[in-house]
Design brief:
39% helix, four-stranded antiparallel beta sheet, 14 strands, alpha+beta, disordered N terminus, 7 helices
Length: 333
């Protein structure tokens, strides 16, 4: 006697469902549990063994628990990584609001009014900020910031360690500079000073001139930027700073053009200086910071010349020359 086709199809479906449930128990444990329970019920109803379906339910349940535990641990571990404090090294401690990073603390402020004989434009104010920042550095004073106000004044913020005495000296020196312009050179001395002025007094060392040139016994004493040489100059400039009509920068070369009337005087002066004995063959270009350049003249210069050098900071030089050209002056208040 043969089995009923209806019973045979049902048994096959139940057996297949148990195998599929067992496979899913390894791949998708939770789905394997659900399908295993369904297969187990159908197998019982068909009178078939339920071993495969029961195994699928057991394995699926175990692996489901393992997956849940693994996910919880992963989330906890990930939270510890993302929520922990940022690592720091001994050399770079993490900054805090109560302990600002080194160099960020500020002290006294000085308001400086800038005026000019020519137009006081944005380029001149930018040049003033550049020159004043360098002036502070050259004088050994920390300048934290130089900001421009709506009124066009400059506010210089000094470091917290800068003394009131240094701020006052800074203000006095920029407000009444001892020298500005083109000068003949009367004498050249080493930076250590001690040169006899002929009246029993001697020149001070360049270290004493950190706030720029000084007036000294009817002369002006100025030091070069490197503080290696000091120049003794006449009390008055041969040509004022605003004799400079144009300043152009090209790489590490700064080209200077003088105004027409002053160019003629400069040509005569350089022609005479080129045949004079030292130091009469030198011409010093000086501002409130110190000596910008003091070349030896070898021939007549017809109102145009260039300043260059391997270590030249062309942008800083151009800023200083721009202030001279504009006839800029500072008033600390």
């Amino acid at each position: 006697m043969t089995d009923s086709p209806h019973v045979s199809t049902r048994d096959t479906r139940s057996s297949t469902l148990s195998i599929v449930a067992l496979a899913l128990a390894f791949i998708l444990p939770l789905a394997g549990v659900v399908l295993g329970l369904v297969a187990r019920v159908k197998s019982k109803a068909s009178g078939l063994p339920t071993v495969v379906a029961t195994t699928a339910v057991t394995i699926g349940a175990i692996l489901s628990v393992v997956w849940v535990v693994a996910i919880v641990l992963l989330l906890s571990f990930g939270g510890a990584l993302s929520g922990g404090a940022a690592p720091t090294t001994p050399d770079t401690p993490a900054p805090s609001e109560s302990t600002p990073p080194s160099g960020s603390e500020s002290g006294d402020e000085l308001v400086i009014q800038v005026t000019a004989e020519r137009d006081l434009d944005s380029a001149t104010l930018a040049a003033a900020r550049t020159a004043l920042a360098f002036y502070g550095e050259n004088a050994g004073i920390e300048v934290v910031d130089i900001a421009e106000t709506d009124a066009g004044d400059l506010v210089v913020t000094f470091g917290a360690d800068v003394t009131g005495t240094d701020v006052d000296a800074f203000a006095r020196a920029i407000s009444a500079p001892a020298a500005q312009g083109f000068y003949a050179v009367d004498a050249v001395h080493p930076a250590t000073g001690g040169a006899d002025l002929g009246d029993g007094s001697a020149t001070p060392p360049c270290d004493a001139l950190r706030f720029g040139p000084i007036s000294l016994e009817g002369h002006v004493l100025a030091c070069d930027e490197a503080m290696l040489t000091q120049l003794l100059l006449p009390s008055s400039a041969r040509l004022v700073g605003n004799a400079i009509a144009e300043v152009e920068v090209s790489g590490d070369v700064v080209a200077v053009t003088l105004s027409a009337p002053d160019a003629e005087d400069f040509a005569t002066w350089t022609r005479e200086a080129s045949t004079a004995p030292a130091p009469g063959n030198q011409i010093a270009l000086v501002d409130f910071i110190g000596v910008i350049s003091a070349p030896m003249v070898s021939g007549e210069l017809a109102g145009e010349f260039q300043i260059s050098g391997a270590t030249l900071d062309a942008d800083l030089l151009a800023a200083r020359l721009q202030l001279l050209s504009a006839g800029a002056s500072f008033t600390a208040r």
